[in-house]
Design brief:
By secondary structure, the protein is mainly beta. Helix content is 5%, strand content 67%.
Length: 332
């Protein structure tokens, strides 16, 4: 009976291997029929038959056959290749793409590209309530979202900060922007951006801007993304002591996102510099630096340092504003 059961099991395994279009072999002798799901810098996700997705170190793979074509990038400084078949034989990796003949590749650099259509973002909020001699309530809301398509991208950012003290409004700040990116090769993109800024208790009380420019994204490491962009802007401004007007200016923006290997913690930094050319010291610099950490499912906690600086003095003679923020949010 035991021999019969073993024979049936061997037969079933043989049939499943025959029906599967792909096969993964590891250096410990394991054989997993299935298909390739995705690749990172040092790992591979294999969708095994009857088991599901299995994460495997690339160094443990001796052979791989798959019929599932994916978009891959051989190195951070190279353009992505589409419709590629990854093949491994005797631990030697090769890539067969529709756009060129097969060639050997270094598996340490090879990784799959994100889906052609995807959406990601996060929304966070913080509430600070103080009771005592000077009671106050502060509410802050932040949103960042991206809609990625094969040839273009939509970006939305919004931040609202509102504070009351002793029944009077002491802070009323809002910052919202929309940016459309036209994607080119090797991380380059053209962009068009519109932005609204308001702070009733600073020297620059309100600003509307519209402009275009060029930017580029870099991926020097597998989980590290850098972005820089800049271009001319037409800016309508309202200063507390200089009145209002519409003048040409410029805007520069940069960002960093790093998905660390520690417990799902993500580090980030972003900076934004806008300048009105016709006004001496007519600039506004803003930056956000911090980390997010997972709590449950899509819920996250965030610790962030916000820094703002203007060239023109505010009412109390201050040019900068520094604020620590501890928030709760959702990430998708």
């Amino acid at each position: 009976m035991l021999k019969t059961k073993r024979g049936v099991a061997a037969l079933l395994l043989s049939v499943s291997c025959t029906l599967s279009a792909g096969e993964l072999r590891l250096n410990n002798g394991a054989v997993l029929p299935g298909e390739l799901a995705s690749i990172s810098a040092d790992k591979l996700v294999w969708k095994a038959d009857k088991i599901g997705e299995v994460t495997v170190s690339k160094a443990d793979i001796t052979s791989l056959q798959t019929s599932h074509a994916i978009a891959v990038q051989e190195a951070p400084d190279k353009a992505a290749r589409t419709d590629c078949i990854v093949h491994v034989e005797s631990s030697l990796w090769s890539l067969d793409c529709a756009s060129r003949v097969p060639n050997q590749v270094a598996f340490a650099q090879l990784h799959s590209m994100p889906p052609a259509t995807s959406t990601n973002g996060k929304v966070t909020t913080s509430l600070d309530i103080e009771r005592g001699a000077n009671p106050s309530e502060t509410i802050e809301f932040d949103l960042a979202a991206r809609w990625l398509r094969p040839t273009h991208r939509h970006n939305v950012d919004a931040s609202v900060d509102y504070e009351t003290s002793d029944g009077d409004t002491t802070e009323d700040e809002a910052d919202a922007s929309y940016q459309y990116d036209l994607l080119r090769s090797e991380g380059w993109f053209w962009f068009g951006r519109t932005r609204y800024y308001r702070d009733k208790f600073e020297a620059l009380q309100e600003a509307y801007s519209l402009g275009v420019g060029i930017g580029r994204e870099f991926t020097p490491l597998d989980d590290l993304r850098l972005s820089v962009q800049g271009g001319p802007m037409e800016i309508h401004y309202v200063y507390s002591d200089q009145g209002s007007g519409t003048e040409p200016g410029g805007a520069w923006r940069w960002s960093m996102d790093w998905q660390t290997p520690w417990r799902g913690i993500k580090a980030f930094h972003s900076g934004d510099l806008g300048w009105i050319f016709a006004i001496d010291d007519g600039y506004l610099f803003q930056s956000k630096s911090g980390v997010t950490f997972p709590l449950y499912e899509g819920l996250i906690g965030e610790v962030r340092l916000d820094y703002d600086r203007t060239g023109v003095n505010a009412f109390e003679g201050s040019k900068k504003d520094i604020e620590w923020v501890l928030g709760l949010g959702y990430k998708w």
